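A common beginner's mistake is to predict each chain separately and then try to dock the pieces by hand. The better habit, illustrated here, is to supply every component at once so that their relative placement is modeled jointly.
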Amino acid sequence: MGTHSGHGRLGAGVTAGVAGLALAAWLSGRRAARGTASTEPVRAARACHRSSALLAGSVLADSAMEHERGAYANPAMYVPPLMAALVLLAGAHGGGDARPQRHRVRHAVYGGAMATGVAGTGFHLYNILKRPGRWSWHNLFHAAPLGAPMALLLAGGLGLAAERVRHGRTRVPRLLGRPAGQALGLLVGAGLLGTTGEAALLHFRGAFQHRAMVLPVSLPPLAAAALLHAAVAPPTRRPLARWLLRLVRLLGWLGMAFHTRGIARRQGGWRNWSQNLFAGPPLPAPPSFSALAVAGLAALRLREKRA
Amino acid sequence: MCADARERPRGAHGRAPDVFRRGGWVPMREYDDRDAVDFAIVGTGAGGATLACRLAELGFRVVAFDAGAWWRPLEEFASDEEHQAKLYWTDDRLCDGADPVRLGSNNSGKAVGGSTVHFAMVSLRFRPEWFKARSQLGYGADWPLDWREMWRYYARVERALRIAGPVRYPWGPHRGRYPYRAHELNEAALVLARGAEALGIRWTPTPLATLSAPRGPAHPCVYRGFCVSGCATNAKQSALVTWIPRALAAGAEIRDLAMVGRVAVDGADRATGVEYLREGRWRFQRARNVVVAGYAVETPRLLLLSATGRHPQGLANSSGLLGRYFTVHANQAVWGTMDDEIRSYKGPPSLAITEHWNYADEGKDFFGGYCYMSQGPLPVVWAVTQGGRGLWGKPLRAEMQKYNHQAGLKIVGETLPQADNRVTLADTKDAYGLPVARVTHAYCDNDRRLIAHSMDFMSRALAAAGARDLWRETDDTCHMAGTARMGDDPHCSVVDADCRSWDIRNLWICDGSVFPTVGGVNPSLTIQALALRTADRIAALAGRGEL
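With all components supplied together, the output reads:
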């Protein structure tokens, strides 16, 4: 990192990551479809694409930065940022696509992302277990983060769900043999709990030194519980679940603001960005909560339409 | 940038340096010399600063003195080992005996904050049995304290300093969770870990007094690696950035560049105040109580210097033990060369530790225990170490080429207290016109057996971790203790369990000199725990009118 080219590559990587996240954020905020009114399944599918894109944006920035920190010691470390970039593009495409059919290239990208997520979890587990101390708190804190590749798995899963939902031949779209709203709700609920687990681990590493650090380990589980309940209970309006998910969507962006401040609290603050973006709290991580909340809200809407 | 901190006192005119802001100041209460304050405290290191803080917070009127300067770490600590020697106590002393100690760098400090400004931050608790070493383990002396009470004070210090330690500590009785999580390990620490795992003993990330997460205005550690040259980021939780700011906020006055030369005592065996040199003038601060916290050489020296007609052998010395039982830690190391780059100087120097031989009693041919830690010597220290092996010229250059591949393990080893290891006064005088301390030290056979055991074991561990060309550093010591030991019996100790002199009841000692035994761990946490306990005891005694 001390070398000139290293610094340049670092700057390029960070810029790409931030640009990706910005694009994803813009996409996730885009509500109105182009032109024609679309059916609820297509609407929900497009929300899932946006959610997947936002999650992929977070993964792109995070994995590009963290793997840069690891100096891309293993060539396989290039795969997750590349895959995340493809998912981001697929999500951008799908988010604007009003056709009630699946898209083969997008479909393949999402499948690839899921495979990458599974393989990444294996790599990260190996990284943890090869260190002295093996399966220990210390290695969970400081070795390759076990939960991170799951985000790519989840981004691919949300994308695949979007493809299936929009492709529904029946009036009520189905997913994995269940009503799509229910399946999506279960997927997003589990994703929220997993992401909470990662935030809990890392905020425990940070000793919950700031009061706000308890927010991402308290609010998302509540939202997940409400969403899971909505998924399995008889379909009806769920204002509480909706509000909780909206709060989680807001929390993601709030988290990014807190992490911005966290970076400022390191030695040298933002003037020393090339160190502190890596040493400080991960800037791109919190919006993954927003991404999941977007998909969770889509699941709720499907569920309310008895799907 | 202000003038040199060593030229003119900074704690003056109602203000003191704000160590968290460049060029900043905080208000400081000041007392008149003629005003008999509740406590005059000599020394502002781990003992004195902690006690000053707590006593002030408990409502006492406190003035603390330090011979050293009041540094601003953010502005005045360079990444330069030689320059940072300004933090050491390098005043003249005579060292003799069969195994004379080297004084200065790793065992004393001359600054507000004392040696905590450049300590290695290793924050360990005593093994419970050590508080009853004589009756439970058969060597040394018993402390007049119960380990369970000390355990509570340890926890308080750990909270106050946001110690970064492992989630579970592998040895000893249960302890509460460390306030902050342990730091990431550097390669040198992983060498220790691999060696320990190969030999089947446990290891852990070292509990350290340096921040692993932000704390108020203090930044987390940036792994600069100059810890023992003074931390320039305030991550290190030295007394300078923890107890001292709290003491100021609670109304204590700290006088920097103030060398205390005598504790005055009246005919009724009550201390009346301290004589001190500041800005070229000897002055006298009146006080109802005097606390001496100058560490194991300067504390007995000051009390010896304060001898009067009624106390011809020095103050608090009716037992004749003042200055005796000077005890150090053995600090031997085994070094080797690794095939991979280690760059051991990255991060705090002792990130991994094993206390196996502190807690295991089988397989030893000696009393006491030792821990050993990973090491991260800076280049000048490393070159000097090589010089100590007799390397010079081409061989030295060749050895220095391997610097990035070096890894080492170094003990903090318990030596036994011996009455003839002692601090006395020499005939020579220092720059203040005061007789200098003579420090006489020799190892006993037990110490040599412990050292031999540790070096054999560390050699095996280092080889098992993949090191080659092993060699042994045989002559280092660290930390000091014992010269004003505490006890239950006025004939066998200098102070009681409250660190209160048996002879002069308003004279207290609050530093490592009160340790009857040293255990196999770095002493700073225990010194601070004792200071917290002493403050509580003083408040209790004051409440009962027994001061």
